[in-house]
Write a structure and sequence with these properties.
Length: 284
């Protein structure tokens, strides 16, 4: 995260991750070739077979390369609570780098990457595309995110439900702060549409363990409410948090939504591995 350029940071993180994996475990688009078909306007030019063109003077697409790619949607919770910071790392900055790395990895795999940002009670969205120019726009929009306000209300979800109803892999990066189940309801609706969903719940180490030594109170970043810590037993908080997240995990898994906690102070390798595993399941 010391690298400020998102594209360079994502490339550095992913290249390091890929170097640590056995190459046979990472299957990119087009490795399982089936047949050629004639080029049609609108097809991705990256899948043209230039050797066939040289032999026949006609444009052909490697059919399997188109079939094995998928659409990946990066959904980022950018409400005000994502400004929570530990050890100099804010949740929203971690989410930026994580989304950039996942987008870059998806692009390497031949997938189309899209973006949705939920903040200020509004929704910003970019449709999924595969072109390199689109990835530059995606990094730019990630850099522009200004977190604030509360989580987006259902009236603004139309862009998430509109457009082609093809099955997507949706990756939701959030601190899972919700007032009345609004995040869970959104995820369950998306799952009901047939999408595969990975939820990465960002937590800091102090937040996870309830290490609030030196503080008399904590403030809710979205409501401004202050909670006095005096009299709260050190053991109450971690037990209550574990009970809550265990219930949340069970609730989401019942809807076939994958849930993983991720700590701000940890590297992104586990998240990148989860993405590849889920992506390869969708290709089978």
């Amino acid at each position: 995260m010391a690298i400020k350029d998102l594209h360079l940071a994502a490339k550095t993180a992913v290249d390091g991750f890929m170097a640590g994996m056995h190459t046979s475990r990472v299957k990119g688009a087009g490795l399982e070739f089936s047949q050629y078909r004639s080029y049609q306007p609108g097809d991705d030019l990256r899948w043209l077979d230039w050797k066939m063109y040289a032999r026949s003077d006609r444009y052909y697409i490697r059919e399997s390369e188109m079939e094995t790619s998928i659409d990946v949607g990066l959904l980022i919770d950018a409400s005000n609570s994502m400004l929570h910071t530990e050890d100099g790392i804010s949740k929203i900055d971690y989410a930026r780098y994580l989304a950039a790395s996942l987008g870059y990895l998806a692009h390497l795999q031949g997938d189309a990457a899209g973006l949705a940002v939920l903040h200020h009670n509004q929704l910003f969205s970019m449709a999924a595309r595969r072109e390199a120019q689109h990835m530059a726009r995606l990094y730019y929009q990630l850099e522009k995110i200004q977190p604030g306000g509360t989580f987006t209300q259902p009236v603004h979800y139309r862009d998430l439900f509109a457009g082609p109803h093809n099955r997507q892999l949706l990756i939701f990066i959030t601190d899972y702060y919700e007032q009345s189940g609004e995040i869970t309801n959104l995820l369950q609706t998306l799952a009901a549409l047939g999408h595969e969903i990975l939820v990465f719940h960002l937590l800091g180490k102090k937040e996870l363990t309830g290490n609030f030594k030196g503080y008399d109170a904590v403030e809710d970043l979205e409501t401004g409410q202050q909670i006095e810590l005096t009299g709260i037993a050190d053991t109450d908080y971690p037990v209550n948090l574990e009970t809550y997240t265990a219930s949340l995990r069970k609730q989401l898994l019942q809807k076939r939504i994958y849930y993983r906690q991720h700590i701000l102070q940890e590297p992104m390798d586990a998240v990148l591995r989860d993405f590849l595993n889920q992506r390869n399941k969708m290709r089978r």
